[in-house]
Batch of 2 targets.
Target 1
Amino acid sequence: MAKRKTFAVPVSSNAAALNAEIEKDVPMEKPQPLVPAYCSTCLGETRHRLIGRCSKAVDGDDGWYERTIYELVQCLGCENASLRRTYHDAAEPADLIEYFPPAASRRLPEWMAPRNWPPAAVPWPQIVGVLREVYAATFSGNNRVALMGTRAVIDLALTEQLGDIGGLNQKLREAKKRGWIGNIDYDIFRTVIDAGDAASHRAYNPDAKQLNLIVDTVEHLVELLYVLQPAAKEIAAGTPSRPPKQSKQ
């Protein structure tokens, strides 16, 4: 029977145990081994089927060593597949685990799917494209880059709606003047813009919780301008008007 290396237990941070796992050669099991792994679709750790595995070992004369294990895993729930990389070396006591595509910490809004794009929204693909880059930076832990991107999304959306009438703060004031956003919304967006400026000019690095709140805010603005506003007009057009009041005899 053909054999190949498989991996059915969590990676150990102990070098000797990791060496043993790398050298292990066992028959392909049916069904394939199950391992716990993070699922970006289910947004949590679930049971995965181990589809494939390969490993790499580096040993130096001075006692330095590196161990890397690559695993292709598939979630048993949603069937989403990803590549998991587990790295360990002599200087780091804990295993470094990464996923490709990067592990997602939030779901993308339904309205971002191409089938849900509003008709005749010319800049919409560009706005969605920048938002996707924000999500990619968020999932990769590049919080500063993601924060700068959220500011860019606000600027791009307001410029498309209002034209290039000045700086971002002026556009935000005009959006408030036109009634698109209220006083509370204005203060929130001002805070987001200030945070984006701080990331660009003062290396401000928000934590994951703060960044997700900021992304929530930017999603709300885009949905308001490009999804809810056109939907409200469509609903209004299809809503029967009230019949005229009958005059009293």
Target 2
Amino acid sequence: MELDLIENLKTEKVELNNLLLNPNNPRLMGKSRKVDLPDSRVSEEQIQKTVLRDIRLEGISDLYEKIKKLGFLSIDRIVVRKISDSDNYLVLEGNRRISTAKTLLQEHLDGIITLEDNLLNSLKNIEVLVYSGTDKNVLWLLQGMRHINGIKEWGALQQARFLHVMQQEESLNATELDKMTGFGRNTIANKIRSYKGFNFSQEVYHGELNENNFSLFQEAIFTRPLIKSWLEWNEGESKFDNLENLENLLNWYVGDEEGNRKLERVLDIRDHFNKLLLPENKSILVKFEEEEEFSINEAIQELRNKDAEKSAQKHQLDLEERITRLNDLYTELSTLPIVNILKDSNKEKFKEIIKKINESASFQLTILDK
């Protein structure tokens, strides 16, 4: 894939106005949109404004100061592809830098700032690398190679989507993805599985799931076998078979129609709700499911009370066991073959042990008599 990239890249100079920001930028997926837009709509003014706004919200202050001071350097290569039947180019790699250049140029034209001529010229015509290959996933590959371990971290959902695309459409296995990203095979499997679970849930859930809800899947559902089993995750078909439990969990976390949430933190789901799914805690789970006012904090308290009762019972069992063992010790001492011990070479060892027992017993009796 990397060789294909090199062979299909050539240098050109393109006017900034002809460089279109990419609404299908992996960094932005899950924010304003959830599906890719076709080339025929990319140049629409409102779409370009929305992408520029979203990228600014992601943050361009670091690039803004650098480019404002030094201009657009030729080493900051942008990768683009030509849009058919048009003079425009779609930015594949470098959307933050192009957004910064467009912002600076517009501020200069609006009189907000004044740029020197050499800086202006570096912004108006930019040297780019034009990709002429046919790999439809080149955008993901370029962005992944540059960002997933590099300049600016993507969100968890964008990382997971990248890994899913590379696995499904480029047929990369976990080992190859690990070499590309350095995430580790287990983390990669968790991210991809979480992405599939999130996508499925978006399709069937009656409420609305957004990027901020992705952590529920990556940090709770797919790290806790009990929760995954309760939702009846179907690995072969990448879906949850128990839709009733899924709907309940999402309502508790995302909020019902009135905005009420019984589970406000992923931590509560991962560490506390997970315990409710143990067979011995079924009565508390039923109470949590059926009683609207029964909160997770009350469930946690009931779990603690139950643990305290178990501990007390165990402590009582421990005392009874110790009584049995003391009786056994008394029997052992009472039946020692003293005559034989007097003649044995271990006589002093017996005396030492019995002396320690006597001292300990005397001390314990002193305390018990108080």
